[in-house]
Amino acid sequence: MNSEIKKEIEIITESAQRLMKLTQGNPALTKNIECLLTFVYILDFITPFPEK
Amino acid sequence: MSFWNPYLETLKREELNQIELTYFKKLFSYAKKNSLLYQEKLKGIEVESLKTLDDIKKIPLTDKEDLRRYQEIPPHPYGGILGVELEKVTTFRQTSGTTGKPVYVPETYESWQWRIEAWCHILYMAGFRPHHRVFLPFGYNVYVAFWEAHYAAEKLGCEVIPGGALDTKGRISKILEISATAMMCTPTYGLHIAEEADKLGIPPNTMGIERILCAGEPMPQATRKRLEELFSADVFDHIGGTEPCGWAGMCEAKEGLHIIEPFFLVEILDRERMEREVSEGETGVAVVTPLGRRSFPLIRFNTKDLVIKGKGHCSCGRTSQKIGEIVGRIDDLRKIRGVLFSPKTVEEVVRSSFKEISEYEIVVTREGTMDEITLKVELSYPPGEERERLIKRLGEALKTKTNLSFRISVEPSGSLPRYTLKASRFKDLRGVKNE
Fold first, then answer.
1. What CA–CA distance (Å, rounded) separates B124 from B131?
2. CB within 8 Å: B109 and A35
3. B435 in contact with A at a CB cutoff of 8 Å?
4. Between vectors from CA B275 to CA B239 and to CA A46, what angle results, nearest 5°?
5. Is B23 on the interface with A (CB under 8 A)?
6. Across the A/B interface, how many CB contacts are shorter than 8 Å?
7. What Cα–Cα distance (Å) separates residue A15 from each residue in A9, A10, A37, A39, B5?
8. N or C terminus of chain B with fewer C-beta within 10 Å?
9. Is B376 strand, coil or helix?
10. CA dihedral B151, A33, B291, B14 (to 10 degrees)
11. How confident is the model over B340-360, as pLDDT tens digits?
């Protein structure tokens, strides 16, 4: 299950980073994307994937 | 039993060790690059040399003095402990400064949310759920106390009521007015609310509080059970601090505290040399590394909290390492007439067998070359001969538990200090000259 979660987290991260580039100059949008990335960081932290 | 994060909370020991080592190495590299404190402290140690969790023992401990020293340099006020650019800091917290200059703790939005996520574990373990209406009878301020609790309860979906800027009577009436069902407070303040409610003719067990999480002070089992009796509520403990965050909490089995793994790597080391990991049942000092906080990287922080190492399993099904019991602060341990004394022992005696004592204070003085220890007590009842018998019984119980003879002094009702945050019922006045 975790490998699928990790894949989705990567997709959200890449998408948020793309959004960040698109929204330069709009503090409201960039701040909300920053907040999104904060929760992505936590999501990644709480779904560690131990090596087998 | 249910879990906040069923995946994390049921990982096997080997898996947790592996994850914690990976996280530790990441933090190590990050700290070495971004924190002046660790650029210097970790000099000569390479991340490649950390192959097992045992290898981290070669890294020097960090203590409060290190933090104070590195805070003296720019940027003000955090100095060399900062792990991010100053402009990324969104929240200021500070320690109470009871042992010296306060430590200023920088949090970014990310690190604060990370702390809150760890705290969600503490609350969920203690049975807090979205249907709870949680009252926080505390005036929030520059200290971290109850801020994490507030936001974590909110994140869990509870309804949170900040109860600052009210006196105790006002808080009691607010609890009743809005039908609060849960509360978070220091154990001392919980007892004070019960005492005040009683004075108002409101038995605390009719207030509707069904769950209490305590913070801010060590809470002996006897105090926890006393609070449970008074409020007819389930009462839970946790341990944490401003620098390392809240790092362990009590589950509904109420047998010790679970370390919040893998948020924190916790070592429990022998207090003589601070080198050897103690065995189950042995007392040691908790050394904590928060593994995901980047605003203020902290590696092997000596909390000076004395704890008994608990089991590695629990009837609740969580697999994290447990703390059997919190013994107290190393700073509070004193030699009195050659006997090692912890103030927590007195609290255990008072709260377990002497419900007549509504408040107390321990004072140690030196008279000539002799140490004297006095227990000042306020008694809610009884008068006369019965009181004499109670004092005799108290003296005997204290002697049995501490191996010290106490002077017992009965003080007028309401004359001893009451506390809303950290109670300070122990005063060592040896070396303090009378003017």
1. 12
2. yes
3. no
4. 45
5. yes
6. 34
7. 10, 8, 10, 14, 26
8. C
9. strand
10. 100
11. 888 888 988 998 889 889 889
Look at residue A52 and tell me whether its pLDDT is greater than 60: no
Instruction: Specify the DSSP class assigned to residue A49.
Output: -
Q: What is the spatial distance between Cα B424 and Cα B418, in angstroms, rounded to a whole number?
A: 9
Q: Is B90 in CB contact (< 8 Å) with chain A?
A: no
DSSP annotation of B224 reads H
Residue B190's pLDDT band, with cuts at 50, 70 and 90, is very high
Report the share of chain B in percent with pLDDT over 90.
76
Interatomic CA distance for residues B183 and B196, integer angstroms: 16
The model's pTM = 0.89
Name the residue type at position B422: K
Beta strands in B163-215, from DSSP E residues, in sequence order: 182-185, 211-214
SS3 B302: strand
Cβ-nearest to B19 among A1, A34, A50:
A50
ipTM of model over 0.90 = yes
Reference B116, options B60, B155, B64; nearest CA is: B155
Q: Identify the band that residue A50 occupies on the pLDDT scale cut at 50, 70 and 90.
A: low
- pLDDT band for B435, please (50, 70, 90 cuts): very low
Residue of A nearest to B13 (CA): A50
- Nearest neighbour of A42 by CB, restricted to B15, B117, B262: B117
Distance from CA of B18 to the nearest CA of A (A): 7
The residue type found at B222 is A
The shortest C-alpha distance from A38 to chain B (Å) reads: 5
Residue ranges of alpha helices (H) inside B207-304 are: 221-231
**Which amino acid, residue B228?**
E
